[in-house]
Amino acid sequence: MARSEDGGEKKPLERLGVREIAKRVGVAPMTVSRVLSNPDMVAPATRAKVLEAIEAAGFVPNRLASSMKGNGRMIGTVVPPLINSGIAEQVQGMSDECQQGGYSMLLVQGEFTTEAEEASIRTLLGWRPAGMILQSFVQSEVARQLLVSSGAPVVEISEIKGRQPIDMVVGVSNFETAYAMTMHLVAKGYKRIGFVSTPIHGNDRLQQRRTGYHAALSELGIENHASMEVEVPITAAGGAEALATLTERHADIDAIFFSSDTLAIGAVQECHRRGWAIPDRIGIAGYGDMDLAAQLYPPLTTVKVNRYEMGRRAVRQLLDRLGGKQKLATITSLGFEIVDRESA
Amino acid sequence: MARSEDGGEKKPLERLGVREIAKRVGVAPMTVSRVLSNPDMVAPATRAKVLEAIEAAGFVPNRLASSMKGNGRMIGTVVPPLINSGIAEQVQGMSDECQQGGYSMLLVQGEFTTEAEEASIRTLLGWRPAGMILQSFVQSEVARQLLVSSGAPVVEISEIKGRQPIDMVVGVSNFETAYAMTMHLVAKGYKRIGFVSTPIHGNDRLQQRRTGYHAALSELGIENHASMEVEVPITAAGGAEALATLTERHADIDAIFFSSDTLAIGAVQECHRRGWAIPDRIGIAGYGDMDLAAQLYPPLTTVKVNRYEMGRRAVRQLLDRLGGKQKLATITSLGFEIVDRESA
DNA sequence: TCAAGCTATTATACTATTATAAGTGTCAAG
DNA sequence: CTTGACACTTATAATAGTATAATAGCTTGA
């Protein structure tokens, strides 16, 4: 084993760890460990010496090892692509709250397919996270089983009603939001309202939005054709394309409800290009109230959902549970607002 | 220790691990381990039995334990706030490449302050990541020292020239990009060009962009006042505000170069509100070529930097190094394009 | 027929931290 | 002068996977 003759017996460069720090200070490793996690249990004088040595050595305790003893301080999360989706706000919320609570965030981007979901969850569970945050309800039964048997608390950021959550849910009623926006548009005098969303398959949030839109229309006795709905990719170009498609199919459409601000903003640009007056020629409504929505010309009427707060709350739920808090809400419903601006 | 009388001696529920799987199959733990990491070293028959047992038990190997033996498969990264910054694209690139390489991504959001940076890096190093990706050059000397002594390869996604990198750099010459855009604007006939950026302090990329802008102007003998530059927060409202401020200070400003598309897009909306024709009344140029830029009305002239690719390349560098590849580039410079559209 | 050569497998020990239990020492009360 | 209580510290073992060396079993060639 290359016992190089450097005179001594065993000096493999002495990796920096609690052991090495302990040796330098002249205490037991356990004492060093306590200085890091339970400083009050160590005599002030000892503590000072240990801290000094830690500082001097530039020692950063190995969290892998402590996690193995069940003190994991890592939250795992699977999110859809960050670009344009408004998920970035949520991730920021999660990250901020994690950091505040002393946790690290392990992030995996995954598609909404069953296999990808399963693979992502498997990867994360491999790190034995203290908690997991998932988007939308988990589809794969295998993945659900893995999550349950992992024992970690799980928050699904999702539609708040529908399937049985694995553990906890944080979200809004997407049905309600879409229902409310559709009602709002009708109240403003629109009669032929189109609906545009990003691919709905496997995304219960989008499904609920569409259902809410349908519910409002049918409740008001407004007939609705499937041809007044389109799915497009989540890009500004997608929004523009949807506007073109719908108004070509139905020249009398007087408003379009987009399931995402990104799409709505794209549509607004397309209207400018065509010289169509908003909202006179056509009303445009979005979803999400992203930063640009209020600054847009004309300002965008949209559904405001506090995604940053959603992220925070999801982590908070996890940390509360980990902290042993009793009587935790299983379902946390955040409110929403219909922000009535000028685009519809 | 609550040795509950269940007849047997020690059956603490037998946590699921290689040991337990091994016992069930009737092989040594090491064999199970090899099935997972070096399947070729195990006889096909044995391998099949082990895989079956793993499947049946829903066993997910503990990566914490394997990481402790130096097989860490985690990349740590510190990023600025994701919202509006175009960092989301980069994170997506990193994430995709990590996943492809079988690595997980540990993400910390941190501000650009020295203390926050140091804290974030410390946190990440605690997880003993196989590699680190940082934004901009690391300011804190202590943090640099920690990184170096951690032994992990480090990529700084940053301005590619300037300070000595800790290890490797991936990026573009922000100086060049800004210089090129400024030259481009002058070539198009603009004479009084303002410059707007988000807070520059501590961000060498922004510093370089401003320097490039200065260099181009002075090379052309165009005088430039500090009053033609503003710093605003990275929001659409910030862009609108900057436009208002600059045109109020200097009524004769005929173009503004924004250090971010988000700002430029906000400014374009402000122009619409004021009824100012773009580019006739004023030219607007952005930076980043975000998705919306091409769809904007009018389409945004901007600097195209492939942020997604930057993220990928950063991870690639790390993985190449970890894979033992020799002669790795220390500096990877990605190209850029001046995308000439109609806003300027 | 025995040693060498090979493959497949196993036993041991190690990674860094920490829960737990056991062990010091000091002080005050009995 | 002992006993108990208390504050602090240490020794041991455990977490789960895997590098390493050792071993078993088999074939092959001399």
Task: Please tell me what the overall shape of chain A is.
Answer: elongated
Distance between the termini of chain A: 76 Å
Assembly state:
homodimer
Give me the secondary-structure category of chain A: alpha/beta
Q: Round the Cα radius of gyration of chain A to an integer and report it.
A: 26 Å
Please supply descriptive tags for the structure shown above.
homodimer; 344 residues; alpha/beta; Rossmann fold; six-stranded parallel sheet; DNA-binding
Question: Could you explain the architecture of this structure?
Answer:
Chain A has 13 helices and twelve strands. In chain A, the strands form two sheets. A six-stranded parallel sheet of chain A has the order 2-1-3-4-5-11, sandwiched between helices. In chain A, helix 1 packs across helix 2, helix 1 packs across helix 3 and helix 5 runs parallel beside helix 13. In chain A, strand 8, helix 11 and strand 9 form a beta-alpha-beta unit. The N terminus of chain A is likely disordered. Chain A folds into three domains: 34 residues, no CATH class; 124 residues, Rossmann fold (3-Layer(aba) Sandwich); 131 residues, Rossmann fold, CATH 3.40.50. With 344 residues, chain A is α/β, with parallel strands linked by helices. The interface between A and B is large, with 58 and 58 residues. Strand 2 of chain A pairs antiparallel with strand 2 of chain B. The first copy, chain A, binds a DNA duplex (30 and 30 nucleotides) through helix 2 and helix 4.
